[in-house]
């Protein structure tokens, strides 16, 4: 069988990879790719990131995953406390409006008074 998607492990870090064949669920590939992008963005912003692939799958259930996005009725992965890093106990899935209100509150608190 030919592989449709393949992520080879980095030989220096020996990180686990996910291999998807044509007969496997393409949603798993989409989830894994989203996980990799999410982790890369957090690291780029300098935020501590302790979520694993297993944690990501537990957070995003099969019923919640299709509602993920940026629209007003979509779901987002957010941190309960935005001053702490990304970890299983600090993350939850919330509606987009709740996520934006948390972000705005955090920005308002961090702005210096004039």
Provide structural commentary.
The protein is of the alpha+beta class. It has one domain (26-110). It is built from three helices and four strands. It has helices spanning 26-44, 53-59, 96-110, and strands at 3-6, 19-21, 75-79, 91-95. A two-stranded antiparallel ribbon has the order 1-2. Strands 3-4 form a two-stranded antiparallel ribbon. The chain starts with a strand and ends with a helix. The mean pLDDT is 80.
What share of the residues lie within helices? Answer: 25-40%
Number of strands: 4
SS summary, helix count: 3
Please report the distance between the alpha carbons of the first and last residues.
65 Å
Describe the global form. globular
Give Rg in angstroms: 17 Å
Strand order of the largest sheet: 1-2
Give a quick account of the main beta sheet: strands, pairing sense, barrel closure.
2 strands, antiparallel
Report the sheet-strand fraction.
5-15%
Tell me the count of domains: 1
Structural class, by secondary structure, is alpha+beta
Contiguous uncertain segments of 5+ residues: none
User: Order of helices and strands, N to C?
Assistant: EEHHEEH
Mean pLDDT: 80
